[in-house]
Specification:
By secondary structure, the chain is α/β, with parallel strands linked by helices. The protein is built from 13 helices and 15 strands. The strands form three sheets. A seven-stranded parallel β-sheet has the order 3-2-1-5-6-8-9. Strands 12-11-10-13-14-15 form a six-stranded parallel β-sheet, with helices on both faces. β11, α8 and β12 form a beta-alpha-beta unit. α3 packs across α4. The radius of gyration is 22 Å and the shape is globular. The two termini are about 20 Å apart. About 45% of the residues are buried.
Length: about 375
């Protein structure tokens, strides 16, 4: 029996958002007869419980983000470098003690793994899940060009979650770039909602500007002004509140739709909301891929999504969902009206989507491709 490959996985957080969910799925299904994972997380959080449940060893070591969600401060680059160096110093003996063969960084947001790999002359894999250009919600501490260039140079192989994500990098690294779509671990449902009284729209995700929720709100405003639905429309927005939510509430007030909108910060089971909704709206201005899109597809819920970023790689307009132009409330209003007036046909399209998602985004495809990349990377 050949020696196991010892992998040091570096996570930028211990949360439970899309990147972390896909990461846990990989760890849950990776072949433990071939690979021995050790996970480094920067703080305590929901991921700790999940790692324990699947019997994955982990250590908590404070690590900074060099791509973060705050405005860049004057001394931020210096602070990040000092904290990175401190984390690397702590990780050197950890890597030695565990005979680490390869280092795997789960997102672009954390550079500690890349620096450690360079220090120890070990192969490094980036798993890139973000699009940085024109992204108001992610701020690199260095310039955008320096950030992307550093990422390209400091990896043996790069995994990206969509073609859209790969386009931010230069063509010169195409030979070491692998497109691996996420597997979405979500219950497959045969239950379809036909009731349209009220007509329930759903958004689920991070409540940030890039998600384009303002476009959906203005579309609803147009529908109510045109008396398309009377007042018989409800839009549930599920996601952790941020400063952006105040802007959204102002839009609701200006559009006179406050009574039609529900802001819900947390739910225990998103599937319950999907089962009791008529359409999932994903109006993002730019989206690296579309985890919630696939979740809705698996639940049998019709989806209207923005024709931006990686989402068009999932949705074929009119075949397994509906595409609408980002930042265009009139087009979104038109698409919502079509689904409302042709709901039986929309449900048939949603059934096509469920079968497509079930056959395409499988755990074997997701984990198998990554296992192959890791194996070949260590063998090079």
């Amino acid at each position: 029996m050949s020696k196991k490959i010892n992998i040091l996985f570096v996570s930028h957080s211990a949360g439970c958002h899309g990147a972390e969910k896909s990461f846990i799925t990989l760890l849950k299904h990776i072949d433990r007869s071939r690979f021995q994972p050790l996970v480094i997380i920067p703080q305590n959080g929901p991921m700790v419980k999940q790692l324990r449940e699947i019997d994955i060893n982990y250590q908590i070591i404070s690590m900074p983000r060099w791509v973060n969600w705050e405005k860049k401060r004057f001394l931020e680059p210096l602070r990040v470098i000092l904290e990175e160096n401190k984390a690397v110093k702590q990780l050197i003996p950890v890597a030695g003690k565990n005979n680490i063969d390869i280092i795997y960084s789960n997102t672009i947001a954390n550079r500690t793994g890349a620096k450690l790999a360079k220090m120890l002359n070990l192969p490094h894999i980036w798993h890139i899940r973000e699009i940085l250009p024109n992204n108001p919600d992610l701020t690199p501490v260095l310039s955008l060009n320096k950030t992307l260039n550093y990422t390209e140079i400091n990896c043996k192989e790069m995994i990206v979650i969509s073609k859209a994500v790969s386009k931010q990098f230069s063509p010169k690294i195409a030979s070491k770039t692998h497109i691996v779509n996420n597997y979405v671990d979500f219950p497959i449902s045969d239950k379809a909602i036909c009731k349209k009284d009220p007509f329930v729209l759903l958004f689920a995700g991070t409540v940030i500007k890039r998600k384009g929720i303002d476009t959906a709100l203005r579309a609803i405003g147009l529908l109510l002004k045109d008396n398309q639905f009377g007042k018989n429309i409800v839009f549930n927005i599920i996601g952790t509140p941020s400063k952006y939510i105040e802007e959204l509430k102002c839009i609701c007030k200006n559009e006179d739709i406050t009574d039609n909108i529900n802001f819900i910060s947390h739910v225990d089971n998103i599937q319950d909301y999907m089962t009791n909704s008529n359409i999932m709206l994903v109006p993002s201005n730019d989206e690296p891929w579309g985890r919630v899109v696939v979740e809705a597809m698996l639940s049998g819920l019709p989806v209207i999504v923005a024709n931006a970023g990686g989402i068009p790689e999932i949705i074929n307009d009119g075949q397994n969902g509906f595409l609408a132009k980002p930042k265009d409330p009139a087009e979104w209003a038109h698409k919502i009206t079509w689904v409302y007036n042709n709901y039986d046909q929309a449900l048939k399209i949603a059934q096509n989507a469920r079968e497509y998602a079930k056959e395409t985004y499988t755990v074997d495809n997701y984990v198998g491709q990554i296992e192959t990349i890791i194996g070949e990377c260590v063998g090079k």
